[in-house]
Amino acid sequence: MFGFKHAAKPAKVCSHKKALPRWDRIENTGDMRQVAHWYCPDCDQFVEPPAEAELGDVA
Ligand SMILES: [Zn+2]
């Protein structure tokens, strides 16, 4: 029967814990509320902000 496929390799799940913030503007560098992108070196791609990212001051 056709359709018998090799079992898909389990995708390596990356939680982007090493994601690094990137800023568009140099003057915003270091301001976690102004992060333009998050880059994960493990995935070598831009990712969603990590859930545990601390956004600094709580108003
Ligand atoms: Zn990642």
Associated small molecules: zinc ion
Large-scale geometry: rod-shaped
Mean pLDDT over all positions: 82
Which residues form runs of ≥5 with pLDDT under 50? none
Largest sheet geometry: 3 strands, antiparallel
**Helix-residue proportion:** under 10%
Give the class from helix and strand content and strand pairing: mainly beta
Indicate the topology:
Blueprint (H helix, E strand, L loop, with lengths): L19 E3 L14 E4 L4 E3 L12
Antiparallel strand pairs: 1-2, 2-3
Bound molecules: zinc ion.
Question: Can you put this structure into words, describing what you see?
Answer:
By secondary structure, the protein is mainly β. It has strands at residues 20-22, 37-40, 45-47. A three-stranded antiparallel beta sheet has the order 1-2-3, with no helix packed on it. It starts with 19 loop residues before the first strand and ends in a 12-residue tail after the last strand. The structure holds zinc ion. Zinc ion binds at residues 14, 16, 40, 42-43, 47.
Keywords:
rod-shaped; mainly beta; 17% strand; single chain; 3-stranded antiparallel β-sheet; binds zinc ion; 3 strands; 59 residues
Summary, kept brief:
With 59 residues, the protein is mainly β. The protein is built from no helices and three strands. The N and C termini lie far apart (62 Å).
